[in-house]
Structures are given as structure tokens and as C-alpha cells.
Amino acid sequence: MNGKIYLVGFGPGAEEHMSFKAKAAIAESDVVIGYTTYIKLVKDLLDGKEVVRKGMTEEIDRCVEAYEQAQQGKIVALISSGDIGVYGMAGPTYEVLLQAGWKPSDDIQVEIVPGSTALSTCASLVGAPLTHDFCSISLSDLLTPWPVIARRVDAAGHADFVIALYNPKSGRRTQQIVEAQKILLRYRRPDTPVAIVKSAYRRRQNIQLVRLDEMSDCDIGMLTTVLIGNSSTFIKEGLMITPRGYANKYSSLTGATKDGEQAGISLSMGLDGWYACLRQYVEDNPGLTLEKIAEYFGVVIGEVLNAIAAGESAGEHKAVRIQSEKLNDVVKSCEQWGRLRGIVRAEAGAVTELFLQAQDFQLRGDWLNIETEAFHCHVNWSKVDSAYLACRKDKSYGVNFIDNKGHLVFRLLITKQDGAFSTDKLEAYAQAWQALAEKNDD
Ligand SMILES: C[S@@+](CC[C@H](N)C(=O)[O-])C[C@H]1O[C@@H](n2cnc3c(N)ncnc32)[C@H](O)[C@@H]1O
User: Fold this and answer.
1) Residue with CA nearest ligand 1 atom 4
2) Which CATH number is 119-241 given?
3) Ligand 1 neighbour 136 (Cβ under 6 A)
4) pLDDT, tens only, 84-140
5) Which end of the chain is more exposed for a tag (fewer CB within 10 A), N or C?
6) What integer is the mean pLDDT of 70-97?
7) Which residue minimizes the CA distance to atom 25 of ligand 1?
8) What is the 3-state secondary structure (H, E, C) of 335-375?
9) 8-state DSSP, 170
């Protein structure tokens, strides 16, 4: 008889949360292999079975044992809490089998039995915190370097995901949760709701609903999952809820169009429509810089410029996109604009302004350089992907050089004389606009 390996996720722990298939797979098996705690959780299902208990660090041993038993023709259940494919034994088992030369077409079959993972079971105990986009991150740095974990926490914070933290803390790993909290507080309000769920659906179940700035001081252990809300998550009547949409955040934009929204159709702020919404917002709110608009919508400057360029104008703003193959033409045009203000923004917030003449730029390899007695300006020209001529009526006229992620590399603006833009300069700028925009149409 051929052996078989069932990889069984049995859910959080309580028998009523185990799937019918998980119970059937264990019932059909001759051998059940698992971490000691997991074996205890399914002890009522183990009568008459060969049981192999392994310690927490013996993960590979569990896989090897399962393969060896299956090679003897036995049916083996390798069990794991939650879903065996989520931070579980499914991956290591396949790796061990494939390394040993096993193939899916071999006589020994492998079947995965999915289970309810901790993020769903923990969420079910506190309300509906995962009703919008979420991600899970394990804070265990035993196999993943901390900088990788920190980068993921940062990205999830920045992207406003609801976050489920697995393996948040152990006896030895106590500071990772403190660091995660610090990173997230850069993006989220201190009173962002957090659910700390320990031993969900087990005897020692414990639930705490707290604020993000209190999180790391709470009772958190190995059997805890931490659910951190996004910018819309709220707590009401003891329930943690994440709304399905972002309508409230952009109510000033979506409010007027709500009646017109149709079920099953993208919001009018959707893939194409939101450019028009952005232009409307800019028209309704005069006095905004490109940076302020980007901050409001949570997008990069390149997207704001794209949105403005997609219409005739947006209030006092106008923009036209110049393709990468015409970048050198743009610099040539700038040479006609006389004294310029060059603006370089560091990501951390510092803004450098330099007075310069475009004809002093020299292209050396990947770099566009100006070297004067007062300053050296080196622009990594190879990073520049596109340019936008962009102006705000009577306030600023210039060109923005943008990289392939939509970030501003640098900006050149024409300067005022005695508090006003000279007619000559405005004319040269208008001519460049016409020439480059026309060339765009070619
Ligand atoms: C190695 S991972 C295993 C995850 C499991 N395969 C799953 O899908 O839920 C262990 C982590 O899962 C979470 N976890 C597992 N069972 C849990 C439960 N009953 N209550 C709360 N968290 C749990 C904890 O974050 C724990 O540190």
C-alpha cells in the first residue's frame, strides 16, 4: 500500500473550529506527528494512533519523520495549529521532500488540509477589523533579518494596511514589538485601535483592546496575535471595526458623487476618475503647492503632475508631460529662461534652493553638474525618467524632473525681478511650452 502525508491545519485549537476534513484526515491516519502543544490540543482524536511528539526547534525532524513513515506505506498526519500553510509546516515539508527527490507524481501523495488561521480567528473575537486590505507580518527574526521585517512594517504603515502581527514577542524576543510600535507611530495616530488576542479559542483566551501607543506595554506572548487598525478603524461598543471603504477620508470629493455611485462599478474616484477628482480638489482649494496636493492624496508628485496634465488645467495649476527622449531638449529650453531657482528636496524634508543658469550645466556620464565658487550641484541624470513643465499662474513657472517612481529629482523655476516675472522670461517659457508640447504630439 502507498503511503500518504496529510499536512493538516486544525484551526485555533477548539474542536468545533476544526474543519470536517481536518478531523477526517486525522481519523484516517496511522501516525500523527506534531509539536507537543499541538498534540495536546487534538488529544481526543488520537485513540489507537502512533503519536510522534517533537519540540519547537525540531521542525525539519518532523518533516523527515513524516516522509520516512509514509515511505513505509503509512498514512501520516503532520499537524499544525491555524493554517499549516501560514507560518507553518507546509513549506518546510515540501522543501524536505523535494530535496529528497520526491515528485508530486510519486506514489506517496501529499495533501494539504487548510485551517482557519490566527488572524481570522482572532479577528472574529474582537469585531470586524479585517474588512479592508490587510497584511500579516511575523516579528520573529529567528529566520528573517530584522531590517527586512522593519522594512515590511514600515511599508505596511505607509500603505495604511490593517496589520496582523504573528510571533509578536517571546521570552527572549521582547524589543521587536517596541520597534514595530515606534515605526507605526510615524504613520498612525497614537489612538489607533489595537486588538491583542492571546490563545484564541483555547482555555486561556484573553483579549485586550488598546491604543497603538499603549501596545508594547501590554501582556503579549508567544500565543498572541496583534491586530493593528488602519487610519479608518474605530472601536464602538467594545467592537473593533474597519469600514469597507475610504468614503469618509475623501468625503469632500466623494460626497457630491455618492448618489451617482453604482453597485459593482468603481467609485468615481476610481482608476481613471480620480485624476478628475484631484483637479476638482485643486480648483476648489486655491493656494496649494504640488507638495501639499501630493500629501492630501497620499501620492507622489509625479502622479499629481500626471493628473493635472491629463486635463486642460486644474484651477491655477497647469502641466504638460515631456517624454524621456526629449529631456535634453528641456534643458536646452531652460537655457533661454535666464537666472533660475534650482530646488532639490531631501526625503527627510530639507529643501535646497540654488540660483543658477541652465547653460552652466555640463553632462558628464550619468551626472548633470554645475560647479561654481558658491556651490556644486550634481544631479543624477540617469535617474530622471520624465519631465513636466508646470506652472501656477503668477506664482511659479518651471520644470519638474521626475524619476521612474514618480519622485521629484529636481525642479527649475524662473526667477522674478523686482517682485515680478519679466515679460521676456514668460514669453521664453511660453515658447518652450508650445514647442515641447507640440513635439509631444508628434
Ligand atoms: C508559528 S505561527 C503559526 C501560525 C499558524 N499556522 C496559523 O495559521 O495561525 C505562531 C503564531 O501564530 C499566532 N497564533 C497561533 N495560534 C493562535 C491562537 N490560538 N491565538 C492567538 N494567536 C495565535 C501567534 O501569533 C503565534 O505566535
Assistant:
1) 87
2) 3.30.950.10
3) no
4) 999 999 999 999 999 999 999 999 999 999 999 999 999 999 999 999 999 999 999
5) C
6) 96
7) 166
8) HHHCEEEEEEECCCCCEEEEEEEHHHCEEECCEEEEECCCC
9) -
